[in-house]
Specification:
alpha+beta
Length: 322
């Protein structure tokens, strides 16, 4: 082997070794870099925030954007991404109205510790806030046409034998605030939910039912709560006399028939016999305003525990006796 060939051999051998060494160093650096970036560091993160909140009389979103900044502890990757961003994506955060303090018409602020409840929405679950740099978040909500209307729930309820409704069907809330063009609001008198079908009831019912959406109209709630009290009952029946009340001096009425059969549905169990205090009467004022002399009887005082009653016959013939 001559000198030229020997030098070429050495050059190729050392060249390959230098390439391998350089690649090894580069790989080691990348591993070191990635390992370090995966560690947690402290740094400042800033996020532009638009507030969302259901405030009566105002739009659901704030018209301004607030830059929320905090010193956070998170992975180095996250901090590198934050520092390299030219434009930051606006984050829409849903605030509870209890955390907003009204400082002027349409102006609401989040102050002090109230911000802590929204850390995950501000910065994500991978960031731990060490301290807020932005002290007060000030949001401006635009005024929006609105109107409060009642809620109507179409209900179909059937009950198991010996069970019945023991009180009024109630909703909470019983009305909602609707938002939209004024001409649409003027024509809107109520909002309706989907039909509620309850069958074979033997216990009180409660739950949520969704409001039917209306195109072009926003509502302060998407669903409402309802409650339907249900109880077991027993039915009692008896004949009771029909009296007369409020007759002026020197006047009296004869009622025919003089007795009525009453049917009482009472909540179970019965603590006291309600028939012992159940009284029916014809009011003289009803008789004096009647053209035919036929009057429906009234109950003097409905005994405790009576859920419903029925009287047969429903009307009585009354004749003034001189």
């Amino acid at each position: 082997m001559d000198l030229k060939e020997h030098l070429g051999f050495l050059s190729g051998k050392w060249g390959r070794e230098w390439i391998v060494m350089a690649l090894s160093i580069l790989l080691a650096f990348l591993v070191w870099f990635l390992v370090n970036l995966s560690q947690e560091y402290s740094g400042t993160i800033s996020v532009p925030v638009v507030a969302q909140c259901n405030i009566e009389g105002y739009g659901i979103e704030s018209s301004n954007t607030v830059l929320v900044s905090a010193r956070c502890r998170t992975e180095g990757f996250r901090l590198v991404r934050e520092f390299s961003r030219r434009e930051r994506k606006v984050v829409k955060v849903k605030f509870n109205s209890r955390d907003l303090r009204r400082t002027a018409p349409g102006v609401y602020c989040v102050i002090g510790g109230a911000k802590n409840s929204y850390v995950d929405q501000f910065f994500g679950e991978d960031a731990k806030v060490e301290a807020f740099i932005t002290d007060t978040l000030r949001f401006v909500f635009p005024v929006e046409n609105n109107k409060k209307v009642p809620v109507e729930v179409p209900v179909t309820a059937t009950f198991r034998s010996q069970y019945m409704q023991s009180g009024p069907f109630t909703t909470k809330p019983d009305s909602v605030v609707v938002y939209g063009p004024q001409e649409r609001l003027d024509a809107l008198e109520k909002v309706i939910t989907g039909r509620l079908i309850l069958t074979d009831l033997h216990t009180s019912q409660h739950g949520l039912v969704k409001l039917n959406p209306i195109r072009g109209i926003r509502m302060s709630a998407d669903e409402i709560g309802y409650e339907l009290p249900v109880t077991r009952y027993v039915e009692l029946s008896a004949h009771v006399p029909v009296g007369v009340m409020n007759a002026p001096a020197g006047h009296s009425l004869q009622v025919y028939p003089p007795t009525a059969q009453v049917f009482l549905r009472c909540a179970f169990p019965i603590a006291k016999d309600p028939l012992s205090t159940f009284r029916l009467y014809v009011d003289w004022k009803d008789f004096s305003s009647s053209l035919s002399g036929r009057c429906a009887p009234r109950v003097q005082r409905l005994p405790s525990g009576v859920l419903e009653y029925r009287v047969e016959p429903e009307v009585f013939d009354c004749i003034e006796v001189h």
